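During data preparation, we tokenized the protein backbone, and the record follows.
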Amino acid sequence: MEIWPVHLQPLNDELLSSWMIRLAHGNGYKAHDFYAHYFGRQTQIWNRDIDCQTPDLIINRLHYFTKQNVDNIRHLSMKSYENILFEHSNSAVLKGVLSIGINHRLRKRYGLQICPMCLKEDKVPYCRKYWRVSYLISCPTHGIQLYDRCYKCSFPITPHRVDMIEKSKLVTNLNINFCSNCFTKLSSSPIIKVNENLNILSNFILLALHKEHVFISSDPIFANLFFLGLRGIVQGYIRNLGNEISSRTNSRAIELLEFSDRLKVLNGCANLLVNWPKNFLDYAYQYKHPYTNFISKNSSGKMPFWLYKVFR
């Protein structure tokens, strides 16, 4: 089979599904039709979380048709955060990654966020990997609130469906910047500035995703241990909120919470991480939290030393 005529380069920190959609549109096809034609209709792509569960078959076929390096393609998936954001897992829901809640090719949950200013400034609109990180709720670049749904119709952000407006042809003026339900421009979402502490946390998280270690109170900490400790702090804060969490799901995992709940939790945790460890210890003592409240669930009782030592 022939190499695709147009094989676009991945953009900076681009999400795999975003690149795949752009490849299809660049070659004049709708995303579903394009991959059904080249990969076969039996190949599951849009009815799975392709960014979290990326079979070698799809990686290898993308490599064949684009001649893009296999490692570069793997780096576009959320699995590239393995052993940084989360430990190795075969679960459909990865720790620290927003769940999209697959139902056929529809989305039951709000698992992809966007920054309206990033999309407005893009020469070519595309989705960033870190927009799916559950601990991020503001844009590290612009210091504004992200959106996990269309601001007009509240439909989940599902860029692979934006080309379905016409059954028979690709509408070329539609792209990732449009809601797939009402076709509103996502870049026109109202701008909501976040407070300084939340902006600091967002930049710190982005740094930890890209570096092997970060610094907390001048102490170097491996990025994976930072995220393990952050998860413990987040879960402890969620436990303390109790019924203030309004999410429809019974789960209290950050990946499954409603946006408003995540905003409440991450605003609170951002305040705890400022002036470390004083604000955090004041909070723990005020609510009489033992250190075990801040051990990440399913972590085999492990607490990273940078967090454990403040309780000593």
